[in-house]
Every structure is written in structure tokens, then in C-alpha cells.
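chain below, 314 aa
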Amino acid sequence: MILKKSLAVLSVVGLLMNGCGSSSSTEEAVSEKSISLDFKAIVGDQGALLCSESNGNAKVYNNLGTSLASGTINDFRFFVSEVKLKMSDNTTQTLMLTNNDNQYYSETNGSVAILDFEDGTGDCVNRGNDASTYTSIVGKINSNATVTGVEFTVGVPFALNHVEFSDIPALNKTSMSWSWASGRKFTKFEINPSDANNSTGDIFNFHLGSTGCSDADANGITDACTQPNRIALSFDNFDPATNKVVVDYSKLLTYVDITKNLGGAKGCMSALDDPECMASTGEMFNLVGLDDTSKEGKCLDASCTENQELFSVE
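prediction:
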């Protein structure tokens, strides 16, 4: 009798143990994934955006803007922050950037990366840059789901933009500085129109950055900017293994004449009275997804993002 009871107890214990083992085996541990987001800069159907040809001569692009002008690239860099991945389980995962020469990540301060497509050759010489190029963003996520989309902001987060971070290589770019209050240039897209077509002799710029910034108590710290000018972008159907984020510089020049200056600095330097930035003349704000009519340098409705043509996915 005692033996039968003991066997019965052991059988029950065995069933309980088997049950626990079965339950735990179905719980999948969350794995860490390394992710690389690749970016590609082009000039319409003329191919990759380059400073120079293989023979060392500056690369000339043709049929640009309203006057179908020719020009050579002087600089092409921009900051990206707040990178997140859309997942197949309907979650959104923050990409924890790897800290290196072009990236910075902190759970407290936020994250930022600089994408750099100029290599210091051709007409990109002596533009405050060097030969290093950065065309990818790398980091990690903790998820077992599949990446289905990507979202990011073109610009530097407020907490990182308005202070000096000499120990952060990604932000320690003197030529990307805007001013002591406004922080950094979020984009530094520059083209030099060919001499025969250039009525001003100046480089045509697209420098996007925060404007209307103020220091309320004169303590040297920026408190706010009335035109933050950060571009929030979101793309579905994106697979990091097969897709790239494409920046088509020719799209940005669609409604401007790079050989002339309609007022203010040549090109668009983010001022709300700069004709090349505005929808009625140059459209450059709208083509990157900013609503110039709001006078706040940000998108207030879906139409702004729909107008955005500079960035796409392939």
C-alpha cells in the first residue's frame, strides 16, 4: 500500500515537472539583433552623388533645377536622429546606435548620427571635411520580430544640438556648426554652378537648421527655437537586408535656379523670408516635408510629409 501511494505521488510530481518544462520551452528568449541601415545619395538618373570622377576631375552634373544648369558637388552631409524600426509584431524598437566616429547613443541624452557622402576630392576639397565617408547607421535592437519599416528624424535632438560636445566625434564637426544659439546645420548640401551658368559666382546652399532660437536669461543656454526645422520621416515596407534609404538631390533642386539668388543667402539657409525656401518660389522647405506656411518650420498635417520628395526607399 505504501509502495502504491509512493508511486502515485511520484507520478503526480513527474507530471507537474513535465508540465513546467513544457511551458518554459515555449517561452522564447528575446534576442539581440545587429542592424545596419544603408543610405544612398543620387542625383536623379545621373547616378550616384560623387565629388569626383575616377580620373580625379570634379564630377559634373547637368540639367539641374529650372535653368537646367550644370554644377559640381561641394559638400553633402546631414544628421539623422531618433532612429526607430517598425516590427512585424506591431511594436516599434529604438535602434541603439553603436558609439563610434559618426554615431552617438545615450539612453539619457538621445542619439544622433552623421551621414557623409563627400570624400574630400574634386570640388569637395577644403570644405571643412575630410576623406572619411559614412553611408550607414549601425546599432542593435532587442526583438525576435522582423523589421517591416523605419522612421527617423533629419536633424539633431534639442538636448544635443545647443551645447558643445567635443568628446562626441559625430557632433565635433566645426563646419557643421550653425551658431552659438541655433546649434548645428542639420543638412549641408552645397553645389557649385558651372562658371558659364553662374550669375552670382556663389555656391548654392541648402543649410537646414533651427532658427528663431533664444536664450531667455542670457546664461548662454538656448531655451527654445521658434522654427525647430527637424524633419520626421516614416517608411513602411523596409527591410534592412535588401532596402536602402535614398536621398535624391535633384528632387530638392526641382523649383530653383541654382545660378541665381532671389534674396537672402544664395540657396535656402532656413530663413522664413528666403525665397528659395518658400512654397511660392523655391519649394525647398516643402520638398523636405516642412510646412513653410505655418511659419513654425514643422509639419502640421499629413500634406507636408506627402510633399516630401527628397528621401525615399529602394
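The radius of gyration is 25 Å. The longest helix spans residues 2-25.
thats it, cya
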